[in-house]
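Checked the freezer inventory, then went back to the computational side. Two predictions to log before the end of the day. The first one is the construct we discussed on Monday; recording sequence and tokens without edits.
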Amino acid sequence: MRTALGLIGYPLSQSFSPGWFQEKFQREGLLDWSYDLMRLPDISALPGWLASQENLLGVNVTIPHKQSILPYLDWIAPQALRIGAVNTVLINDEGKLHGYNTDAPAFKESLEQFVGPEPTGKALILGNGGASQAVQDVLRETGRSFTVVSRSKARNTMTYADLQSTGIETYQLIINTTPLGMFPEVHDCPAIPYEQLNSSHFLYDLIYTPEETMFLEMGRMAGARTKNGLEMLYLQAEKSWQIWTRK
């Protein structure tokens, strides 16, 4: 039985996943299981690296490989294919790589605990990468209207400069999917007009380290309700575990 799991990405300096899974193994009496950080700067090295692994059941995938890993997979779950990003890979009994996205269902569950299950006002999504695609999929599924903000102009998005001139009063929910503010660059934050925030806003940051990013701190100081991505991380880890163990 294969009992090795891990996380691939780069640089992986502040991941909570190994500790969470080690506690999971201890709770379930799985003392021979392991979860390791696997630093992979270049996704093209994935096939050779996998060939060197003897006991690997699956991996989580993080920045910067959630999208670039897709061509290396033998099968992709419909939701992950729709999103265009994979964060969980199962290696089946034939050695085939099956890709899933557990970020989306984890975000949905965490968001509903934060703002409730029903659509409440328009949402603003900061960033347009792989994590953003998962968030967009969830907001579409739950009937929430949203606008994406990106550094460069693209179809169906606005830029941060646009946001400075249009304001954010009409957006009740603001979700940061960018790495701005992540350790060690803790003084960075998305360039939004924080002075326009108030107690009617909900700010959700997918970042979980530090516990309170500059984005969340400035929102809290303006009276907004805030939440970081730690709960989402734990929820997606549990959903990854269910995929690997078929439970």
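The second is the one RB wanted added to the comparison set:
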Amino acid sequence: MLPLYQPTLTDSYGRQIKDLRISITDRCNFRCVYCMPETGVQWKDKSEILSYEELTYLAETFVSLGVTKLRVTGGEPLLRRGVINFIRTLNSIPGVEDLALTTNAYFLPEYAERLSKAGLKRISISIDSLMPKAFELLTKVNALGRVLEGIEAAQKYNLTPVKVNMVVMRHINDNEVVDFARFAREKGLIARYIEYMPLDGPGEWNRDMVVSGKEIFEKINAKYPLKPLIANHKSETAKRFTFADGAGGEIGIIAPVTEPFCGACSRIRLTADGQIRTCLFSLSEHNLRDFLRSGASREQLRQFISTTVLKKELGHRINEPDFVAPERTMSCIGG
């Protein structure tokens, strides 16, 4: 086991990098319209995907540099065999303070208990509609009932607080904003509303489809008055609210398009094929996989990571005239 050794991993703007998103697969059993194309997806060859042994070695290396929070993502991470043991291994790394996973919940009815016993602390679930027909339109899969079962399983086995994430798109599911808040109240969930970002599979992102965080807040607040929560950390991405009447649940609004929060970003991403992405919207990637496979020492990997973090962008450029969307879609980058 790697000895605990935690200098501060800091970018050129003085931001400490504490959060690592680890994608373990580019594959998914859903085809969410904002994430990947319905057809023609080019999967990475197995040889290009990092093994669990490689992922563990790199996770240890990131933690040795000061990372304390790990989130396992995909694609759909529960599609990959061996994910339970991988979670258990990550949980055993000294210095890991928070271990979470993002999933579409399709496999959670079977996996929730084992994930909990393996040491998973929290879970985020993508669910963009509570209406069966709309859910199928958005995901291309008739699976809403199974996802709802997955949410119940996550709560049953204490993968809490359970966050349910809704990407809000105008004329597609924005009519469910209040219903989603009601769902959170009734089930004691954290409902997080995310502005539609230019990372969609078909490449048809249109600013007119963005429902702003302000508009989302106003819709919910008109029905269920909200009370702001003070952020636990300045790098939090969501503006958080509780219900003023004391009902259970919580509301979070993530507005990267209309209210960018890049200034306090503490995140970095490792794709399933071993590329470091310093920003969700980076136009370049840094090939950590090939450097690792070339026989680089632990110290050389630390230096590579530290140097890469210094290249982290000040912020995304969604609102700039010269903005260019990344070539890779969300499913390839990792949530």
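For RB: The chain has ten helices and twelve strands. The CA atoms of residues 31 and 179 lie 23 Å apart. Let me know if you want it refolded.
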